[in-house]
Amino acid sequence: MHYCINYCRCGLCALSKVLLVERKLADVHEVLGQAGNAIEQWAAPSVHQKESLKVFFLVLQVCHYLMCGQVLALWLCLTAYW
Q: Which domain holds residue 69?
């Protein structure tokens, strides 16, 4: 069961990556929101795993905001992580 839940988190990130390539930006926004909530609620077995997934998620967010032309939203997103 643990692997299934972990796969769903990675699966949401992978799905958002595919949607970015297909330029379905409205769908990407929704999936990234779900992925962000799932990552934050995840009690990872190690800090390294959760941080790695958060970095991948952050890269996807940056790509999404740049493709949408929302530089200000990107700036706010990045400052929240610092």
A: 2-81
